[in-house]
Hints:
Layout: H1 14-17, E1 26-27, E2 30-31, E3 56-58, E4 62-63, E5 67-72, H2 78-91, E6 105-109, H3 114-128, E7 138-142, E8 151-153, E9 158-160, H4 162-174, E10 178-182, H5 184-187, H6 195-212, E11 215-220, H7 224-229, H8 238-242, E12 245-251, E13 263-271, E14 279-285, E15 288-291, H9 297-320, H10 334-339, H11 349-361, E16 365-370, E17 377-382
Parallel strand pairs: 5-11, 5-12, 6-7, 6-10, 10-11
Antiparallel strand pairs: 1-2, 3-4, 8-9, 12-13, 13-14, 14-15, 16-17
Amino acid sequence: MNRPLANPYDHMSERWRDHLPLSDAYVDDKPAKVQRTSRFYSAASLKDKAVPERQWLVDGLVPQKTVTLFGGDGGTGKSLLALQLAIAVASGTGWINKAVTGGRAIFLSAEDDDDELHRRTHDILAASCLSYDDLSGLTLRSLAGEDALLAVDSQVALVQSELFKELDGRAADEDPALIVIDTLADVYPANENDRAKVRQFIGILRGLALKRRCAVMLLAHPSLSGLSSGSGTSGSTAWNNSVRSRLYLERITDQGFEPDPKARVLRTMKANYGPTGGEINLTWNAGVFEAEKQPEGLDRVAASSKAERVFMKLMAEVTAQGRRVNPSGGANYAPKLFAANPGAEGVTKRAFGAAMETLLRNGRLSIGEEGPPSRRVTFLKFEPE
Length: 385
């Protein structure tokens, strides 16, 4: 007589048993690995629970428990700025005039070797008046010249690599507030234009952020189109769509000319949990980036008044020359043209943009239109006072 099976599914392969309900999956008379269980719940159950506060590593810029994509062209300085953030977190100090949540930090670099990490760390400490004793909470790892992939492409889906498991284990031991991964091109194993694989990869990193309750910052280079458009996007739009926060560091240029090679601007390109469009002007000095002081109070009022005065002065000049500028972008976008004008008096494109909106709002400027309905052209014009 044949011996009865311990379980009616024992004749099935493990592959098929994995897809059975938990109560029906057995291996050697023991339950198989835990299956996904339902986590649906009624919204009404939230009634008596306190609303959780939004958690930030850097308020308005870098949220906790998710992935921030930090882009910048090669040589712009994103690795340095990210290392400055990691040191600020570990030492409990500020970052480009922003308060940060203190804690431990892990900085994983696939581009810089140990000597370069040492040099940059030394410069940051010197500029911040800190010492190496302040960095017991910072863990560095150089992967230069090594296999740095954090996932493996099985052709069906991406799966965590051994390096990822090593990183996750280190995060389990250290409980970091921040993990920096530099850069995307070195750690991602698939085609950057493959939307499904992109989303899977970001999903793996977001799982790490949620599991370890920390911010994960992934550094990336923009594609050629992202670089030329100024959007800073990389490959598939899925990179931008899959993350909850995206920052972009770029040089300040005008038609290919860079007035100040040490100047940078950090832009908020995407922020699901806050406003977009923010800019922080930075200057490289003695091996680190420093934020330019923003005018406050009476200084801000004076700066705004100056921008409006200079805007109107340049508006009068172009009008007298029979030229037209527009309020909505393109080659004749007024703030862009005025910022590049020798008579700009140091006013930036952003400041001119704010001044233009104020002048339109108070009626000192208006928007004119001309041309047939199919090809209407808009332009700025003076209004009589």
